Amino acid sequence: MSQIVIAAIFALSLGVTLLGGAGLAFAIVYLPAAILFSQLPEIAIPHAPLAAHFAPLYGILLGLPFRSEPLKFKWCLLDTIMILLLISITITAWSTEVFETGVNAFRTDLLTWFGPYFVARMVFRRIETRRAALNVLVVLIAILSVAALIEFRLKPYWYLHLLQSAGMRNRIPPMAYDRYGFFRVAGTTNHPIYFGNMCLALMGIIAILAKTTGKSLKNIWVALALFGALGCLVTSISFTPYVGFFASTACFIVLMTVPRARKMVLPITLIIFGGIFAFTYHVAHEPLGPKPDGDLPGSLWTRKEIITESWKKAVTAGPFGYGRILDFSADDDFDLASVDNSYLQFAMTRGWIYTALWISIGIVFSIRMTKAFNHATHPSQIFPLAVATAVVLGLMVSMYTVWAGALYTVIWMVLLGLSTTLIDLVLYPDLLLVPAKRARRRQTSITVPAPAILQPHAFDGR
């Protein structure tokens, strides 16, 4: 059944691309496939395994040559960093294993992270795509909310059991998580932390899409979607997404209420990463002590243990790391079943070059966002820029206590692509596209003249 569903997703994506364009396919096929079906076992096609969230990208890629639509975007340094990240992981895989491993690593990271990022960069220029994506996400949040309510009180992994009962899931995590008398919801992912972080990313995307398509956050469907995503985040009962949410909220409030802070996004980002490094160095060289009782103290102690034991391996990992298979069985001092810290995990498995490039995403993003704030001329532009800044950086903070290889990072990459294109629409007004029928009514091309970006409805094409 899984293979039939994945094949149907591919066929649907190809058909929508041919008939409606890449943007529509990304909005109504890719987003549901990634959020609802990423746990399906992939179709093991030699050299081109087909997962549920890969299938729409294949369909879009195959359909694009038969479509004539404006998909160009303004290349920036952040796009170059994405390419360098892809090159770096490929070198790591080649140097630590074999040539085929490098090919697999290239394909997997391209389809998991960088493909969605670049497609989002291309398609979210159009208000039609943003509006379609918003409508789709409202429906998806409704589905996630139902699953979360059932799992929170009644049955852990209810959604994954539902897929399995339909023949679409071959494995369910053997251990259910609970805290404070409630089940911790994993939803469409395989861990509550991943689910919480994904919901935070979805909140950011929904808020940005609403404000850039002329929708008010008081619109009943937008408000319900935001409330539902927040509720889903709460049901994860995970400290990591909670930290990400509070960091994002604090950043958003500061950017909205303190205009001077919009000129200091880069210093704030540097302080965040500097604080993370200083804390890591301090904990790595501090005696750990016995594990305390209680959920929160115990969770914090576990994070400190991860830092303490991972640090000495991370600093010796070299420019390209030890590779995806960490075998420290000969080291009696290293005793970790997992490394719930994206930055230390990157350093050990992918090397310091990859880690530095990943951190530079936040730095370069902050530089470009500062420029966008400086060019913004109306409050309607400030709000989505502030949301983008807050959620992108907030999730980079939450990555400090969880691995970055789950579904939430896929949605974060979509958010990053959307946010980067949002910056372009402020810095380069000629990139703003409006629906073709509106352009015909004005008897102009589909590109809005530069002065339109100065109007109150700068992002919705009015």
- As residue ranges, the low-confidence spans are 436-457
State the end-to-end CA separation. 45 Å
Q: What is the arithmetic mean of pLDDT?
A: 87
Order of helical and strand elements: HHHHHHHEEHHHHHHHHH
Question: Could you explain how this protein is built, in words?
Answer:
The protein has 462 residues and is mainly alpha-helical. The chain has 3 domains: 1-69, no CATH class; 75-123 and 251-427, no CATH class; 127-237, no CATH class. The protein is 65% helix and 1% strand. It has helices spanning 2-20, 22-37, 55-63, 77-96, 99-123, 127-153, 158-165, 192-211, 220-235, 239-257, 265-284, 295-314, 342-375, 379-398, 407-427, 436-442, and strands at residues 178-179, 182-183. A hairpin with a 2-residue loop joins strand 1 and strand 2 (182-183). Helix 10 (239-257) packs antiparallel against helix 14 (379-398).
What are the key terms here?
about 450 residues; mainly alpha; 3 domains; two-stranded antiparallel ribbon; 16 helices; 2 strands; about 65% helix
Explain the layout of strands and helices:
Layout: H1 2-20, H2 22-37, H3 55-63, H4 77-96, H5 99-123, H6 127-153, H7 158-165, E1 178-179, E2 182-183, H8 192-211, H9 220-235, H10 239-257, H11 265-284, H12 295-314, H13 342-375, H14 379-398, H15 407-427, H16 436-442
Antiparallel strand pairs: 1-2
Tell me briefly what this model is.
With 462 residues, the protein is mostly helical. Helix content is 65%, strand content 1%. The protein has helices at 2-20, 22-37, 55-63, 77-96, 99-123, 127-153, 158-165, 192-211, 220-235, 239-257, 265-284, 295-314, 342-375, 379-398, 407-427, 436-442; strands at 178-179, 182-183.
